[in-house]
Amino acid sequence: MLQPGSDLPCPAALAPPAGRPAAASDGGAVAGSAPGTWQGGRVTDSVPADQAATGADLPGPTDPAAWLTLPDVAERLDLSISKVHQMIRDRELLAVRRDGVRRIPADLVANRTVLKHLPGVLNLLADAGYDDEAALRWLYEEDSTLPGTPAVALGGDLAREVKRRAQALGF
């Protein structure tokens, strides 16, 4: 709806639809929502600030060199960065945010390919209700019946045993 004799929209056309609150001017918060919330609280961080772990509390490799950024993974796998993002969405790879940057444990990318059984294990863990941080914690939790951690065992002869254990978590 344009104003007569003008290319400008009519003020009524700019109003929000009935039943939908108008946006406030405090950085995208929705009118009627608590101050400091964004989109009425519908959008959240991957880990709430009050639950964010730091340093040694974080799951995964402790050595910073054991982590790869997404461009590093794309280069190692000889793929485009968008394909790496697609692999993460499809649970073929596991990426978590560290220091504000999405990273992937280097152990999960063997040579020029992803560990063979990793996508299956990630899907089993997701089906069992594990989010990315919990799946990473499970993969890097020491297990006395495996040679180190499930992540290390995925690269060896015990990969099927790791898959069986991940499958049992769903029951």
TrEMBL record:
<dbReference type="Pfam" id="PF18367">
    <property type="entry name" value="Rv2175c_C"/>
</dbReference>
<feature type="compositionally biased region" description="Low complexity">
    <location>
        <begin position="9"/>
        <end position="36"/>
    </location>
</feature>
<dbReference type="GO" id="GO:0003677">
    <property type="term" value="F:DNA binding"/>
</dbReference>
<dbReference type="Pfam" id="PF21531">
    <property type="entry name" value="Rv2175c_wHTH"/>
</dbReference>
<feature type="domain" description="DNA-binding protein Rv2175c wHTH">
    <location>
        <begin position="66"/>
        <end position="108"/>
    </location>
</feature>
<feature type="region of interest" description="Disordered">
    <location>
        <begin position="1"/>
        <end position="63"/>
    </location>
</feature>
<dbReference type="InterPro" id="IPR048576">
    <property type="entry name" value="Rv2175c_wHTH"/>
</dbReference>
<protein>
    <recommendedName>
        <fullName>Helix-turn-helix domain-containing protein</fullName>
    </recommendedName>
</protein>
<feature type="domain" description="Rv2175c C-terminal">
    <location>
        <begin position="116"/>
        <end position="170"/>
    </location>
</feature>
<dbReference type="InterPro" id="IPR041098">
    <property type="entry name" value="Rv2175c_C"/>
</dbReference>
